[in-house]
Amino acid sequence: MATSATHPTSPLLEARGIGVVYGGGLRALHPTHLRIAPGEFVVLLGPSGAGKSTLLRTLNGLVEPTEGEVWMRSLGIARDRKQRRALRRQVAMVFQQHQLIGRLTALANVLTGRLGFHSGLRTLFPLPRADRQIALEALERVGLIQHALRRCDQLSGGQQQRVGVARALAQQPQIMLADEPVASLDPANAAHILSLLREVCRSGGIAAVVSLHQVPLARRFADRIVGIANGTVVFDGPASALDVAALARIYGNAAATGADAPFDERAEPIQTGALATT
Ligand SMILES: Nc1ncnc2c1ncn2[C@@H]1O[C@H](COP(=O)(O)OP(=O)(O)OP(=O)(O)O)[C@@H](O)[C@H]1O
Ligand SMILES: [Mg+2]
Prior knowledge:
The structure is a single chain. By secondary structure, the chain is an alpha/beta fold. Helix content is about 35%, strand content about 20%. It has a six-stranded mixed sheet, sandwiched between helices. The chain has a four-stranded antiparallel sheet with strand order 2-1-4-5. A hairpin with a 5-residue loop joins β1 (about 15-20) and β2. The radius of gyration is 18 Å and the shape is globular. The structure holds adenosine-5'-triphosphate (ATP) and magnesium ion. Adenosine-5'-triphosphate binds near residues 46 and 48.
């Protein structure tokens, strides 16, 4: 059975028996308990369709759980729409396809991370200077300050994902969720984005839950790995405990041996100079 990671500190975010049945009756997530401690870097592993996105989207309030509840230390239980909106403001999300607006500059995209902090009407006007400052600092943290005024559709895939990370950082979250943030990147950029994500989270005291498809990357970056199969958590523990039996529980016997294949990573590192100075 799954080993349960112990937390010396009280949790920051907690899934209390959350389950999701989508319209049409498909059960994507069985009632799940999960506690995320402040500052920990958790990698979520599982085959396609296992329920990783569903879990992440429920944790940040994008999906309403069919049963159970999401609790956050600073908010309490997110019960209704309004509380789930507050949850989305405090739990930042990084997406696989970046979800940036291509014709806008990197800075403008990062500024959208601040929109949730203002009323609907306020967002029709330029955001305050303080927000610009926060956005610029976030771009600096990901090493992209020199590209702040470039259109996002003129940036490389890796740079666009760094804008995605900066946008999440601009929310000044206590926790960041990332749904396959490196799936559309080549192996070298994938490793560098994860390294960046871990570094900005570690230095900012931000907890992270990151879904990945590559076991070697999970082993390399995770403080803790949560494995999910068929909508159920089947592993929860440190990378060192992720043995063949655990991989078989997550991916099935046939796939488990291939899941640990070495990760190819050759290209030049991206420049994240700003990180070194902060
Ligand atoms: N909006 C939705 N409506 C109905 N069913 C959905 C919806 N989103 C996901 N599902 C189904 O729920 C199950 C879990 O999907 P989910 O996207 O959470 O898996 P995943 O682990 O993120 O997979 P992948 O690795 O392919 O991204 C799947 O069977 C999927 O088809
Ligand atoms: Mg998914």
